[in-house]
Amino acid sequence: MGEKLYKKKNSAIHNQGLFAKCFIPKNSRVIEYVGEKISKKESSKRALEWEESAQKSGEGLVYIFELNEEWDIDGRIGENPARYINHSCGGNCEAINDDGEIWIYSIKDIEEGEELSYDYGYDMEHFLDHPCLCGTKKCIGYIVREDQRMKVKKLLRNSKKKVTKE
After folding, report:
1. Which of 26, 67, 94, 146 is packed most tightly, with the most Cβ within 10 A?
2. What is the pLDDT of residues 97-131, one digit of tens each?
3. Which of 50-54, 87-91, 155-159 has the highest mean pLDDT?
4. Residue 20: count of CB within 10 angstroms of its CB
5. Contacts of 22 (CB under 8 A, 6+ apart)
């Protein structure tokens, strides 16, 4: 295995993050997201338990990645530095299921010292539970996958109009 392309440091986005140790060219394999392979049933159970605990503590909510229709990976278990990569609405990486392994790839050139980030791809169903602190121009204040951000913006505008009228 080659030298690590990243280092863990304090992050303005969410306490800790991973940062590029050197220049990382676009389309590079940066880090594998690893953890315990668990069933969908176990995954749902853990996610609900962790979310309840995390809302009280302010820790990251969920570290579970979907592998396929039967299995997920719980990234909280074991040595998994990739779990420190923060969400950003304008990320420089993406997570790809590469033949049963989750790999983080760069989607643009990343300069030394730049924080690694990607769109977590959360559905808008519970967007109020997932505030976003990335601060990019694309950010709407909540962690929601890109194709649903306009819907959330519209919902937020409409709810502000209702509050203003009352």
Report:
1. 67
2. 998 899 999 999 999 999 999 999 888 887 887 88
3. 87-91
4. 20
5. 5, 112
SS3 content of the chain, % helix, strand, coil (to 5): 30, 30, 45
**Residue 26 CA to chain centroid, in angstroms?**
19
How far apart CA 84 and CA 141 sit, in angstroms, is 20
Q: Bin 84: left if φ > 0, else alpha if -120 < ψ < 50, else beta.
A: alpha
Q: Which two tokens stand for residue 148?
A: 């649903």
CA distances from 31 to 71, 90, 152 (A): 20, 19, 31
In b/e form, how buried is each residue of 61-72, taking b as 16+ CB within 10 angstroms?
Answer: bbbbbebeeeeb
| CA 44/CA 36 separation, integer angstroms | 14
CATH architecture of 6-121: Beta Complex (2.170)
